[in-house]
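note to self — DONT lose this again. spent like an hour looking for the file last time. sequence + predicted structure for the chain T wanted, 348 res
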Amino acid sequence: MIKDKILKIKELFPETELNESKIISIYKTEQQNNLSVTIKILSVFGGLFATLAFIAFIAISGIWDSATALEIIGFTIIGFALFLHKKVKNLLLDTFSISAYLVGVVLVVFGLNSMHISENTIIFIVFLIGVISLIINQSYILSFIAFLLLEGSVLFYFQENHIKEMLSVFIIVNLILTTFIFFNEAFFYSLKNKLTDLYAPVRVAFVVVLLFSMSIISIKNNVILPFLYQTFLSLVVAFSFLFVVYKIAVKMQIKDRKSVFILVIIALLISGIAFFASQIIVALTLILLSYYVHSKMLFVLSILSFLLFIGFYYYNLDETLLYKSIVLMALGLLFLSFNIFILKKANA
């Protein structure tokens, strides 16, 4: 699989001299990260419980009552965590530094809130912390968390300023960027800068943010988008899904017109039936994207989200049980047809 991707890079950039050993090394590092990421995430949760003792100490000592002290301690912990995580490569110390980083961010936010700083200013500072963290450190878990801080601050800004309709724009931008980075994996790995190290964690973070933002609008009466914004979102999601289907067909070298026509018709029917259930189409798009880059972790995450969004869609419909059943049966048959068609062409 690595050799195939190297060939793809050569096709895209024929005049560029490639350091194949470097690219292979990067792919192997990513595979190791994917294998250990679950362990690291579990370790972070364990580390967070350990740092509760430190927070308790701050509360007991009275430092919690001083906003200035919280800011000093918070920023110091963040700086120390970034330095430690960059310089030391050890699972135990990695866990400690990531936990410390999260605690530092929490202390900074509480300190700013105690100073009665405006919510927008706090959001902007958290955004800056995320950006600076990404510039300083490109390790997997820390970059993932920093990017979530960056994206989360944007979401909180919309919430705080009561411009929830901008959530559709946020989702559209993230969907376009997610599709772009998935289809340009070879390009990012051909670079010899920080973007190469950031690619894997940021890709996962994009998927998590996209699924989270879609879940926000999936909960009934949680966020009601204006009809124009909802329609535009559905159109972009449908177009993205069709584009991904097309790219998958190209990858599978489906060339005969009849097969392409059948594939397009099935994709159009799925997009049409679930037009205003854009969360389902987004999850299905992410499933195809995960298949495209052979990411098992993202594939499983997308499958689980797809099932969750189907459940949300079913219970949110203000229709009769018969209507719900017909819609879900129609979607199910289309998904099965799509799966059978893909498998048949893959084995041809």
